[in-house]
Amino acid sequence: MEVEFHTGLAEPLDHAARLLRKALKQGGRVCVATPQLDALARHLWSFEPRDFMAHARPGVAAAVWARSPVWLLPAFDAPDGGAGRPGIWINLGADAPARLDGCDRLIELVAAGPGEVEGGRGRWRAYKARGLTPVVRFEGG
Question: Most-buried pick from 21, 66, 124, 125 (CB within 10 A)?
């Protein structure tokens, strides 16, 4: 399993939208956990005027979850409609997942603010303690 960090992000929502657009163009399916659920959902509607990024949020029917390439959750432990999570997970400010079952690749997005940086460092240490080897793939700034 891969754990990668994208750090020092001035605009985390833009960065997340770019990653999602890239995954969708490659036919990928992604689960995003963020306490900024509403803001990210609005951002996906307006990020690129000609690109619609289909996504599901809590409360939709199980059939919608099953067909949606992007899942937005407030946290990784939130219910996902029972469809089984996609293999790519993006963490945008949520707590690190307690379980990583079904995750092939986890991308941690860390904003540039001091609180976000400290939170990212804590998640890095938590992954190391689980025997994983996180890597930095992108450094903003």
Answer: 124
Token pair in block for residue 29? 């399916």
Range of the domain at 12: 2-139
pTM confidence score: 0.92
Q: What are phi and psi of 123, to 5 degrees?
A: -65, -40
Helices and strands, number each (H, E), in the chain? 4, 7
pLDDT tens digits, one per residue of 76-107: 887 776 667 789 999 998 889 988 888 999 99
Rounded distance between C-alpha atoms, residue 92 and residue 123, angstroms: 12
Amino acid found at 116: E
Assign residue 108 the CATH number of its domain. Answer: 3.40.50.10110
DSSP character for 111? E
DSSP of 1-47: -EEEEEEEES-HHHHHHHHHHHHHHTT--EEEE-TTHHHHHHHHHHS
* Residues linked to residue 108 through DSSP beta bridges, in sequence order: 5, 91
